[in-house]
Design a protein that fits this description.
320 residues; mainly alpha; 0% strand
């Protein structure tokens, strides 16, 4: 009985924390973006300490109050995308699953959450959230063109600038499915690490991830990546209208992200193995976001690691 009361009190307190985080994320834009990403944290802690039943109860209570205090749409957004993720990570941590297995379950849950959110938007609200995002982008292009015009920029330069942004937004629309798949493990990792830090301070213990410099993508990733390169090149040249073109673009985007991550691992392994300053690797990682050529170098470094096994840790270079 005392245990049940303790769980109820803790769930209530954590639900209140989730509500406060939702309020701050709404009314404090800069801080709010960060708080939105870690909003599942109270749900995770509640589920890990008291069980999945109390984690779900914490989610339902916080969601109900958020719908009354802010608005129902915001509550549905948090509950469907981040709430399910929190419940899954909390239960996985309660079972003390190995970190990589936990990441697999949590990432799958994050993808499922995103799909559910889009489906609910279509079915219940009758809106297309993806189209809403790109409608906002189109409006921003018009405003940008007007701003350039008022600043005295000539029409040729305005057209060139706006055309470049249109092409970028068009590509973003094509790779949206791959972006969902890439975002899912990032959300899962951020929330797992945040929850682990909090729960460790509360006396819990969890298995650590393998050393970063020893992490490796599966060798078979090389095959779909290579096929996607051929597919993108072929359909870009001969038939961009077929559904196969965006399919191969998304496959290429997803596996490119994986190989870029592998390239970053090789970068840090190189600095550690050859006793070089770690800030070399830190600067190299930053350059990925600002120098396109360097990002391609890192991508191919990660891909070639599958073939040449620079660290000599793969049992089979092409299939491990």
């Amino acid at each position: 009985m005392n245990r049940k009361i303790s769980a109820m009190v803790e769930a209530g307190i954590l639900a209140a924390v989730a509500i406060v985080m939702a309020l701050l994320s709404t009314y404090m834009p800069v801080l709010g973006m960060f708080l939105t990403f870690i909003w599942p944290l109270p749900i995770i802690i509640c589920g890990m300490r008291n069980g999945i039943k109390w984690g779900i109860m914490c989610l339902l209570v916080s969601g109900a109050i958020i719908s009354m205090v802010i608005n129902p749409l915001h509550a549905v957004f948090l509950a469907t995308i981040f709430g399910l993720l929190g419940v899954i990570i909390g239960e996985c941590m309660r079972r003390h699953l190995p970190p990589m297995k936990l990441m697999l379950f949590a990432s799958s849950g994050a993808v499922l959450s995103l799909i559910i959110n889009v489906a609910l938007s279509f079915i219940v609200l009758g809106i297309n959230p993806v189209e809403m995002v790109f409608t906002t982008f189109d409006d921003s292009l018009m405003k940008a063109a007007e701003f350039y015009r008022e600043s005295g920029m000539n029409e040729a330069d305005i057209e060139k600038s706006v055309s470049g942004m249109k092409n970028m937004f068009s590509m973003m629309r094509v790779i949206m499915p791959a972006a969902f798949l890439v975002t899912a493990p990032i959300l899962a990792f951020i929330n797992y690490i945040a929850a682990k830090k909090v729960l460790t301070r509360l006396g819990e213990h969890f298995e650590s991830f393998p050393p970063f410099t020893l992490m490796k993508v599966p060798g078979w990733f090389l095959w779909p990546y290579a096929i996607s390169l051929v597919g993108v090149t072929w359909f870009y040249k001969y038939n961009q209208e077929t559904w196969l073109y965006p399919f191969f673009v998304n496959v290429q985007t997803f596996f490119s992200f994986a190989f870029v991550l592998q390239g970053i691992v090789i970068l840090y392994w190189f600095t550690d193995h050859y006793k070089k300053p770690r800030w070399w690797a830190n600067i190299g990682t930053c350059l990925i976001f600002f120098v396109p050529v360097f990002s391609q170098i890192i991508l191919y470094t990660g891909a070639f690691d599958v073939i040449f096994d620079f660290r000599k840790i793969r049992e089979s270079r092409l299939f491990c």
